[in-house]
């Protein structure tokens, strides 16, 4: 379990021994200047076979991930608020470890956080707030907002902390590359099914063209659900780009 | 001191290191009402940060097996809820046991209790009055009994007796927010006042922290937005990297 945490680069005490691999918040980085140390997941090529052999990291299928969630809610009586706060905080921590502010060009480093219509988007809102506290300058794009108190409260927290919300998504990848040093994809999570509807289809197309790094919360949004299947979540070797929709 | 939020005019704005009880309540109200934080969110952030403070004060590699056993004593109010969250996070690396004799009926406390139970954290049904038994069984104790503004008399017999026992502790004691039994303003000892080795101030230090003389004082307030800190004219050391606690 502690090995898993080292792999995910989390500095947090998150889960307990009874909970099997709580909702692995994997960070999938498509490209970019960062390096991954030997105990981290390798984005530069194939899986490091030594890492794989020495560390049994189980990746969850969609059904398993949903089952973990259900157990946490029903048996452990966690609330969505609690888990979302822990998830968003741990993602911000992982991102800050992968892309420390001192390694970025701007001060404070600019980050675009794209939030989808469900819980993954909520994770992104929490993540953006903590990134601000860690010294980044996040901007949020949140086109489809559920009309539920949890999400409206998270939006208020971000607004009160002067985190801007974009009115529209930049249409050209180059615009994003110029304005932001990192993009956080908090669009779709593990419960995503079916076709990608607008505006997210267009958003994902734009993200495909980016040169700045993308950090995906939980799974790369829209990643080959039909093509690759759910046996393998998490970072993909760069030659099978996860952003094909 | 008026109950409205605002710094004490007798202190220079840049010099403030502590909040009065009324200001602490006003800060919390601002987070809950203006920022729309949920109480559950804040308790989770405080409890998690308290656990991180424990790991900083008592790093795991330096501890023997016995020293990893932690007794967390929880009162029935918000301080106790923070203690329950702290115990759950400590469970990952340490071996916490909880003494939570007077249980709150509110949903937050009940859910936090369930989470601890489901993670196999034992709950003691009684606390020995013989302090030597506690010294021998545990490596350290976390005091999450009384927060600011809660009178010792409000929490019931078992908590009061527990505090009397803890006053005689020889193993390290970590107090969350304020040492239970201290007057939050003056820091004067009540009969049940404790002498913790570590104090973890939640959000910002309370005035009584000025009289803390233990080894480590942490502030767990990374989650407090800058604007709120400025509004209460608090000057505190910066947080490093992604740390949620800072040593004062």
Automatic annotation (TrEMBL), chain A:
Q: Does the keyword NADP apply?
A: yes
Q: What is its EC number?
A: 5.1.99.6
Enumerate the catalysed reactions.
(6R)-NADPHX = (6S)-NADPHX; (6R)-NADHX = (6S)-NADHX
Has UniProt tagged this entry with the keyword Signal?
yes
Q: Which residues form the YjeF N-terminal domain?
A: 65-245
InterPro entries, alphabetized: YjeF_N_dom, YjeF_N_dom_sf, YJEFN_prot_NAXE-like
Domain of life, per lineage: Eukaryota
List the molecular function annotations (GO) for this entry: metal ion binding; NAD(P)HX epimerase activity; nucleotide binding
Q: How far does the signal peptide extend, from start to end residue?
A: 1-24
Q: Which UniProt keywords apply?
A: Isomerase, Metal-binding, Mitochondrion, NAD, NADP, Nucleotide-binding, Potassium, Secreted, Signal, Transit peptide
Q: What class of enzyme is it?
A: isomerase
Describe the subunit structure.
Homodimer. Interacts with APOA1 and APOA2.
* NCBIfam families the UniProt entry points to: yjeF_nterm
Q: What does this protein do?
A: Catalyzes the epimerization of the S- and R-forms of NAD(P)HX, a damaged form of NAD(P)H that is a result of enzymatic or heat-dependent hydration. This is a prerequisite for the S-specific NAD(P)H-hydrate dehydratase to allow the repair of both epimers of NAD(P)HX. Accelerates cholesterol efflux from endothelial cells to high-density lipoprotein (HDL) and thereby regulates angiogenesis.
**Name of this chain's protein:** NAD(P)H-hydrate epimerase
Q: What is the species of this protein?
A: Homo sapiens (Human)
